[in-house]
Known about the structure:
globular
Amino acid sequence: MQTILIQYYQSPCGELILGSFEDRLCLCDWVNENRRSMIDKRIQKSLEAGYEAGSSEVIAKAVVRLDEYFARKRKTFDIPLLLVGTEFQKSVWQELQNIPYGKTLSYGELSQRLGEPKAVRAVAAANGANPISIFVPCHRVIGRDHKLTGYAGGLAAKKELLELEADSRTLEFR
């Protein structure tokens, strides 16, 4: 069996688990998350690999990039990612990476961008199954009425991330 190296990272918004497989980041997810075991099972089964505590070059880079992001010194990421999911999920996660820092989209707008305007619920489910938070910025997707809706790290973490990216401009959340 192959190995997914994992390490924990304490962010200002909560603890994250980072994972790397074959020199790519495959996991950056919230530890206190109710779908944690589902995501772990999916990744381990798909990669035919088990978790082992340790570090790698990509995890070390991810830690530096996260530190820079939380210090407001980084707006884009250059970490090689390994997206583990269905083809549809991967298409959603790839589109999430096109949402600019400091911007938000609704689930409906994301569905439109994917050419699937009637697939709002499927897009929302794929967004929620994202195992690489922050690097694949699912926190930038909000409700069409500007309400903060579901987030793996909790709505408080989502709000903190969006406020961090907003800098000095005022965000409107209800």
